[in-house]
Amino acid sequence: AIVNGVKYEDTSKLTMPNSKLYAKARLSPLSLTYYGLCMHNGSYTVKLHFAEIIFTNDRTYRSLGKRKFNVFIQGRMVLEDFDIEQSAGGAGKLVIKTFTAYVTNHTLKIQFYWAGRGTTGIPYRGFYGPLISAISVTPNFQIPLAVEPPQTG
After folding, report:
1. Is 3.30.2130.30 the CATH classification of the domain at 29-139?
2. Which residues are registered as beta bridge partners of 34?
3. Which residues form the Malectin domain (predicted)?
């Protein structure tokens, strides 16, 4: 990616399993919101997959920032001042946070908000907000069939 005339490449040399899953991420200066629509009501396991791939601490000016943000699932704060690098034990390392969410109106809502702390100007404004690599959502119940199978016999 080229931002303000500076070319950014993934130099973290990710070595974890499924590294391609973490080589790119969604990033926002302020907030990201994800919806799961038309879901069955019930309990779900939500896994949030993170790896800090922007602030790599490779001793260059543009890599020394700190990212902190809050995460809400169904309106409830589940992570406060979350720092990916600190939680994972370093830049370029994965961390997966697992939560239980309850869907009651057929909609799952996951929100990521910049916490107003951490770096605000390195390398450029807007690089410090929430970052997410992947989200997985698995029902904690058997999904009902939409149509009853034909009876035999």
Report:
1. no
2. 110
3. 14-135
Q: Which two tokens stand for residue 64?
A: 């020394």
The enclosing H or E element of 86 equals helix 84-88
pLDDT in tens for each of the 153 residues of the chain?
A: 555 555 555 555 666 677 777 777 888 888 999 999 999 999 999 999 999 887 776 666 655 677 899 999 999 999 999 999 899 988 888 899 999 999 999 999 999 998 887 666 666 666 778 999 999 999 999 988 776 667 776
DSSP structure class, residue 108: E
Report domain extents, the chain.
29-139
What are the tokens at 121?
């100007």
Q: For residue 93, which of 84, 101, 102 has the smallest C-alpha distance?
A: 84
What pTM did the predictor assign? 0.80
